[in-house]
Amino acid sequence: MRLALVVALVVCIPFPARADGLPSGFQERLVEVEDGGEIAPVARWLDQQGADPVAVAEALRRGSIHARSEGRDFEIEVRARSGLRTVARVLVPAAYDPETPAGLLIALHGARGDQDQLAGTYRKATELGWLVAMPAARPGEACCDPAAELFKNLTGGAWWDYSPEGVVFGTFDEMKRRFNVDEDRVVLTGYSMGGFASWNIGLRHHALFAGVAPISGALSLIEYTGLRDERSRSLLENATNGSLFVLHGAEDPVVPAQPDRWSHSQLDELGVAHVFHLVAGGSHRTTFFRGEGAEYAEFWTWLAGRRRDPGPDRMVHVAIDDDHLVGDWIEILEARTRPRAARVEAARTGGNRIEIETERVNRLRVYLHPDDVDVSRPVTILRDGRKAFEGVIEPSHESVLSSWRAFRGDRRKVTAHAVELGR
User: Fold this and answer.
1) What would the DSSP string read from start to end of 238-300?
2) What is the pLDDT of residues 182-192, one digit of tens each?
3) Would the pLDDT of 8 be above 50?
């Protein structure tokens, strides 16, 4: 009997907790999940530690303590999940305080550029209290646009990777590790090749950004031919809850302005608010980069006002490939993205009721954040006109870890409540 009691105590006593209340060893396991490791074993381990899923989610929302920056203008090393390494120039506001979240502007250079190409232009963001990160593209990045392979000889063998595995998101992750980033104020911008990337990364992964500002770019390299790429154009619906600032020289001889004109018209048809500047007589490198013109001043006003709604009542997510399946609060788990795009449109209609319409989607997961839904009461979910779920959703470690990975460690979106829906 005494031996049995000792064994029981050994099994049930949890590991020592850290200062933030999380079990010792949790951070190492969380990194494994972030890198694509299995969620179920980590969830079971948390259960064995006696951890409460709601408490774990709340601890993750509080975030970590950040050290004070050692400089105002320096380079950092970035490692993408693909394994590729690069550098990024970082600009830090003079008034940066690690205890106060700061906005983050990620700026992507053009062909044959580097981490310093845009520093002169975007340094002004630090005067507004924003952090700035400017990574260098590297040859070897796998691009989501097959047509980019034809252009790599023109760009020094490099093209930005639009997927979560590339150096853009590697930079995003590294900045969040080093600084107290306000995740509701992350803006992506880019010039030329970086303009193509900001269009595509910003629309494919729209749930993570407060705004996107492509300059002298376009949605698709295919449209160089003058033909519309309707598959890529379907991504414009993903700007429903975001904000776009689009700038192009009317006489650009390098990247024709016509595709951005098409995007402007299509966004108007969709009813998506955006700013569009077609600079009369403007070439590829417009007066914006000399700090001139009304559009230059307007950009900084636009940037200062960017703030994401982390849980909008209505959301739309269109996926044209399998590497961008996460919308504002729904993750597509299984879909057919070819030859036509998969699409989810969802709305919280009041009274803990959610209505979802899907196209070419087999399975999905709905994340319910306590700021948006009363998780203590029953939830009703309709999918394609039929009741798919009704009841109280129990908190789980699987939900915490899944939301953490789906939204890339976003403290504003992590939740202990989720429900999976199949066909």
Assistant:
1) GGTTS-EEEEEETT-SSS-SHHHHHHHHHHHHHT--EEEEEETT--SS-GGGGT-SHHHHHHH
2) 999 999 999 99
3) no
CA 315, CA 328: separation in Å to the nearest integer? 6
Q: Is the pLDDT of residue 11 over 60?
A: no
DSSP 155-198: GTT-----STTSHHHHHHHHHHHHS-EEEEEEEEEEETHHHHHH
- Return the exposure string of 105-127: e unless at least 16 CB atoms fall within 10 Å of the residue's CB, then b: bbbbbbbebbbebbbebbebbbe
Residue 155: what pLDDT? 61
How far is residue 67's CA from residue 41's CA, in Å, rounded to a whole number?
A: 32
In a 10 Å sphere around its CB, with 0-12 CB exposed, 13-18 middle and 19+ buried, how is residue 289 labelled? middle
What is the mean pLDDT of the segment spanning 326-348? 97
Percentages helix, strand, coil for the chain (3-state, rounded to 5) are 35, 25, 40
Q: Residue 231 is which amino acid?
A: R
pTM above 0.85, yes or no: yes
Contact, 212 vs 188, CB < 8 A? yes
Query: H or E segment at 30?
Result: helix 26-34
Rounded to an integer, the average pLDDT of 312-329 is: 97
